[in-house]
Amino acid sequence: MWRILLLTVFLTGLATPVLAQDLPWQACRGAIGPAGPVLSDCRPIRDFIDPQGRELWIRSTLGAPADTRPRVLYVGGVASSEAWFNGQRLGANGQPGATARAESPGRYQAIFPIRESAWRPGGNMVVLHLSSFHGGLHFARPMSAIGIGPYPYAQQIVPLAVTFVAAGTLLAAAFGFGAIHAMRRTGSSLILTAMAGVAALQAIVESLRTLFDYSYPLHAWRMSAIWALAAAFAILLVSYASTRFLPKARRLMTGLAIGMVGATVLLPGFDLKTVWALILGAGLAALPAAAGVRMRVPGAQPTLAWLVLFLTLALGFPEWLADLSYFLLAAGLVLPLLMVEVVRLGRDDRGREAALTRAASRPDRLTVASARGVELVPIAEILAVVGADDYVELRLVGGRSLLHAARLDGLAAQLPASFLRVHRSVIANLSQVQRLERDGDRWRLHMREGAPLPVSRSRQPALREAMDVPPPAMTAVAP
């Protein structure tokens, strides 16, 4: 686990920080004239470019490049765009307009090539026409990047590859925990299945911007999904830690996590929402883990160490949490837990085999195998055995019942002669019978406690003979 976590810090320094050179921009009043854009009343943009719910004209001036490498204008954000360079139209991404009806939504990312002949020795003017009427949600910073840079620009290959590896690892862990849950039906394995699956799905959604050139209105759905998945992981993390180390406070901690993590939806900016959802989840999960360390619960100490490291990296490098380090940290948690669970299941199986061996020498008891383990049940305490698909239900004295992983036919051969099959799905313990009674055109076998059992017509003669009861024509049955 420590190798994976240290790899997170190392890979943080390998990623490409920017795709293109940012430019100082001015917002203007603009219109398209015969010779290109006509701008007036230009003022510097001191904060950020925001075309949401309006039509926006912006311009910037830059010098000529020092080399002859091809250059492009890179525009990424929630907007349709149209670009000019020194009065020459570079192209359009969708079609910006003054209203939603006039606008045709473009892609979230667009690249406009700049011909080498278009550059001038002195100043060069870039003009952008933007609008955003189909974003769906209001973004705190709608434009991720607008700038000019070399082409092809440096791709973020290493972070993307690492994210894919982490996603594959998390999917494999989800499958492993799902298989464990199918065999053992434990609550912790189900939670870990969901945690690994949610983290893997978020890694896939996070990579969509690099892999697919989607339309900008879909960006709101993508960012909403990223926050929702991060919030789900955070809540599941708290639920797992509480279930594992402080079960008495599980409902309280899970409810607290739902409230606090859910409140991050009110924060500005989806990156901030996502980062704080994960930070709050890890912080709340650290409380039951710390309690487990105090009570010396096995596994609490490494879990707490992982959570502390998670919080340290999240608070120290928040800009990398949602994009890269979170997926590595999630994989670093679920993989060791999967290995521990596999080892524990092996020990449980060996213990079950030993219990079955010991039970073979106890003919007065029935060895009941279920998802939770093995229990030796005194045969005298069994009222009836009722078939339930591939399982049987053992109805016991005192109102208790157990599910036994056995078939009714096989179990009938194991039980002593005091047990008789009275229905195709029922075996009754005759030593616990009170009476046989008519119920309309049907018969019911009343036991010393519990609900009466159905009796089929074909099995009535054998039952009457075993109970030493005359047939109906010879005796009256009590109403």
From TrEMBL:
Residues 454-479 are annotated as: Disordered. SMART domains: LytTR. This is Response regulator transcription factor. Keywords: Membrane, Signal, Transmembrane, Transmembrane helix. Residues 366-469 form the HTH LytTR-type domain. The keyword Repeat does not apply. GO terms for molecular function: DNA binding; phosphorelay response regulator activity. InterPro entries: LytR-like, LytTR_DNA-bd_dom. It comes from Sphingomonas alpina. Residues 1-20 form the signal peptide. The chain crosses the membrane at residues 157-178, 190-208, 220-240, 252-270, 276-293, 300-318, 324-343.
